[in-house]
Each structure stands twice: as C-alpha cells, then as structure tokens.
Amino acid sequence: MLEGLGDLARSEALAVASRHGVDGVVVLVADPTRLVLRWPGPVTPLLTLRTAVAVSRVLTFAVPRPRALLGDATLRVLSAAVADVVAASPPGTYQGLRLGMAGRDSSVARRLADTVAAAVGLVADDDGELLLRVRPSAAGPASGGAPPEPPGWDVLVRLSPRPLATRPWRVVDRRGALNATIAAAMVQLSSPAPAQRVVNLCCGTGTLAIERLAVGPVASMVALDSDIDALDQAGRNIAAAALAGPVARVRADAGAAPFPAATADVILTDPPWGTSVGDHTENRDLYPRLVAEAARLLRPGGRLVLVSHEVRLTDRVLADTAAWWRVDDVRRVFQKGHHPRVHVLTRR
Q1: What is the pTM of this model?
Q2: Is the pLDDT confidence value at 254 over 50?
C-alpha cells in the first residue's frame, strides 16, 4: 500500500469481503504501508481493490536464511503457489518470473528463480510478469494470544501480472499524472453517492474523473483543464475505461470555471505541483484562484478533495480562506519520490 492509505485499504478489503460473501476475514497486520489478511475464500475479489497498490499471497517459511528456501519441501510449496497464480489467469498471461530480494544477483537468488520458474513452465526474467518478493519475516506474537511465531522468511507471490495501481484504462500517460491508487483514495474520502454533481478541476489525463465513475454513477461529471492536449488525452483514457456515465470535458482556467455558483456537490482536484508540471511561481497565482473558485462552485456542505506537493502554499491558501472550509482530513501520501498532502474540506 502507499503511505497514508492503510485505513482506506482495510475498509475497502472488508467491504469487498462482505460484498462477495467471504466470511471469517481476519486483519493480522494493518500499518501505514501494509495490510495482511487471513482471507478464507477465493482471492479473485481482492484483485478489484482500488486503494491497494498490489495484492500478494504471503508464504512464511521457518528457515534461517534464503538458501534454505531451496529445500525440496519448501520448493514444492512455493512452486504450487506460483502454479495456482498462473492457472488462474488466461493462457499466455505469464511468460517470465521475476525475483525481488536483497542480493538478487547472488547464486542462491538465481537458483531459486530458475528452479521455481522451470517448475511452472516459465523462464527467470528480470522483467517477468510473475513477481516473487523475498523478505525476512517479522517475528512476534501471533493473533489471538498464540505462541510467538518463529522467525523466518516470507515469500510474497503477487496475484496479478502488474500492480493493481497500473490501471488498464491508462492508454495515454503523461509526466506528472496522478497515481490511480491515490485518486481512488481521494474518491473514497469524497464520500461518493449516486446523485452527486462532480467537477474535476485540473483534470489532466482524467485519472480522478475515471476513478470516481469506476465507483458508481453520478448526476453529472465535468473534467476541466486549460490544456487542450491534456483534455484530448483524458478523452482517450475515458474511452478506454468504458465508463458507465458520460464525462463533459471543458477547456477553461481552473480559477474561472464557466458554471453557476453552488452547482457542485464534490470537487476533486490535482493542481500542478511545480515539479513535473507547472512551476512554483505560476502556482502562487493559481492556487488562491482555484480554492476561491472551488468555494464558489460548491454548495454549502459540498466537499473539496485536493492533493498537492505544494505543501506550504496549500497550507497558506487554506489558512487565508479558513472561513470557507471545515477541515475533515489531511493525510500525507507518497508518489514517485514526493510526499504530497491530501486535504479533505467541507464548504461551510
């Protein structure tokens, strides 16, 4: 999971379990970057998670060092788990097996990758779709007061050929595009409901608009950006997503949207951070105008969810406009070496 999204991933996983009739799910670990579940049911529903970066099966082996993973009994268990993942996907989905671990160029790592790959008809490949990650187990008391678990090594078998955060609808990418997992989290924080009128200011390639409509229908959805190329790219991604509802793409400045006041229930926005997109000087002009426009467009009680790495600028603008907003949540997340903040605000 991405930093800051653990509680949302936990809630989503439990909701998925309820929706698919998976009873007896136990949360074993829930921390800022990791959610470990005992999942007594088919794993396919877990692949629908939108706030998780990836889903893996965790195999724990009570062995002192990775070399011991090469034992016959351990290799049989590991190979069977990998074979299950391959069998659950259409033929040809997996061609290669990739091993992620410290010292992956060592003879032990190479032999482990070669042996498991051969057992399931794959080849060891640094770009392989089937990812195994090897890491030390976290020793400590087990759930329910059981005796302490022995130290050992975990092998994580990813259940999809690419991370869940790599959405299939993203046929057009753009430098600085928002991580879809963060976008999905922002949607959840907006308290989505079917009758909402949603506006996506600074829509870029359409990530927030697509993730909102992936959750369910809306009364209306507008994606607004001043960049005609971004709107074209958003249109291509929206078409690839095959969404249930239409998206009106509008070319306009985020500080001067061509809509009447108090006509939006939710505004989602990822304005330029001044790094990959835009610059800090322009942002000092843009951010106050964008926040003022969001306040104008939102009905009382409407919600603004904003993400930016312009942390000080955002804090200053929101402090200057505090009379307009109730702060519901502020959380730090992670994207490509940045630690942006997600602000969840309700229009007073």
Answers
A1: 0.93
A2: yes
